[in-house]
Write a structure and sequence with these properties.
single chain, 7-stranded mixed sheet, SH3 type barrels
Length: about 110
């Protein structure tokens, strides 16, 4: 077996294992779980509205430290967006709640059913 085939097989098996351990949950329940993290780190996967690509982000909800004042000119919740702080980029980002795929909160993985 070639190394590339081995890697593909390994990735496939890991994905199967992750799906087996993930708890199926509704989109609204997952959004509430994210809101209940209260500043704890979590990983979320969703489809971006701008270009349709899948994005996985390490984030925190409810971070206020880096706000520069002022308010958003729109209501993100009304537009189906959830404002979070992207830990890797060090900037605020929006999660498209209508295309949530799953999240890892604490030691539990959730997948939208």
């Amino acid at each position: 077996m070639k190394l590339s085939e081995f890697k593909k097989n390994l990735i496939t098996e890991v994905k199967k294992l992750v799906k087996e351990q993930a708890v199926p949950i509704s989109r609204d329940e997952l959004i509430q779980k994210i809101k209940d993290t209260k500043g704890a780190f979590f990983t979320v996967t969703f489809v971006k509205r701008t270009d349709g690509t899948t994005r996985t982000m390490n984030a925190r909800f409810g971070v206020k430290k880096y706000l520069k004042g002022g308010e958003l000119p729109y209501d993100p919740i009304a537009k189906g967006l959830l404002p979070v702080f992207d830990v890797q980029k060090g900037e605020y980002r929006m999660i498209n709640t209508s295309t949530l795929l799953g999240a890892n909160i604490g030691n539990q993985q959730y997948i939208v059913k």
